[in-house]
Amino acid sequence: xxxxxxISAIASHTExxxxxxxxxxxxxxxxxxxxxxxGEKVALTGFVTFDRVDRKARTARNPQTGEAIKVAASKAxxxxxxxxxxxxxxxxxx
Length: 94
Fold this sequence. Notes:
By secondary structure, the chain is of the alpha+beta class. It folds into two domains: about 1-40; about 45-85, Irregular (HU Protein, Chain A), CATH 4.10.520.10. About 40% of the residues lie in helices and about 30% in strands. It contains three helices and five strands, in the order H-H-E-E-E-E-E-H. The strands form two sheets. A three-stranded antiparallel sheet has the order 1-2-5. The protein has a two-stranded antiparallel sheet with strand order 3-4. The mean pLDDT is about 95.
């Protein structure tokens, strides 16, 4: 399912227009991106959590040559799935 299909599905489940749903999803993306980039955790309990993690500098190896390479410290996004979502995917009974 892509973004436009998601917008259509949500619009069909609500009384909102596709334009309004699109605006809500765009705002959601913006708010999550802004807060996670500042280092704040965004959690939708039971569904998903977005968090920023700091990766330390490290030494890695080039698999072809075996040469040691320095990898700089970086920031990454961690997305964790909530318990209710996991249970639904596993097919757990309600």
